[in-house]
Amino acid sequence: MTSQTIEDRVRRQIEGHPFTRDLLPTDTEALTARAELVAFSTRDVIFRAGTPADTFYLVRSGVVELTVDAYSGFPQVIQLINEGSVLGWSWLFAPYVWKFDAVAATPVRTIAIDAAALRDHFVEDPASGFRVMARVAAVMNERLDATRHKLLHA
Questions:
Q1: Which pTM value belongs to this model?
Q2: CA torsion through residues 45, 50, 54, 56, sign
Q3: Which residues have a Cβ under 8 Å from the Cβ of 101 and sit 6 or more positions away?
Q4: Can you tell me whether residue 71 is helix, strand or coil?
Q5: Backbone angles phi, psi at 101, to 5 degrees
Q6: What gap in Å lies between CA 92 and CA 150, rounded to an integer?
Q7: How far apart are alpha carbons 73 and 35 in whole angstroms?
Q8: pLDDT for 68-122, tens place per residue?
Q9: What residues contact 138, with CB distance under 8 A and at least 6 apart?
Q10: How far apart, in whole angstroms, are the C-alpha atoms of residue 16 and residue 21?
């Protein structure tokens, strides 16, 4: 497969992802230039708490478990991340370290975006950074609401 074909495939996947719907073409191009398609098998570790948060994931298909080590010594699933959503936002905040573990509960296909390069782009183009960050913030808000609801009804 040629690099042009690969880039076209990544671009199509990014443009078709719900997170990027209605972003400006320059924003989707910025994401595409820093992205690759990455797949994980069931039970693959996508990232571990305490390790460098260097990737922003758009989940194309599958289910990811976000877990935290519980006092029992066994991981506690705190959230399931599904197709069409995003995975991870620790890459946005220094010291850029994951706070949870992420494990593929099923086969998972993602668009993996180089987080450091994306942060650099945000410095160069603050308007683009604002538009993308606003979407990430909306996801964070939804996830916090879901966690709050889960805690109140546990």
A1: 0.90
A2: positive
A3: 45, 47, 48, 49, 66, 67, 68, 69, 75
A4: coil
A5: -95, 150
A6: 25
A7: 35
A8: 876 777 788 888 999 999 999 999 999 999 999 999 999 999 999 999 999 999 9
A9: none
A10: 7
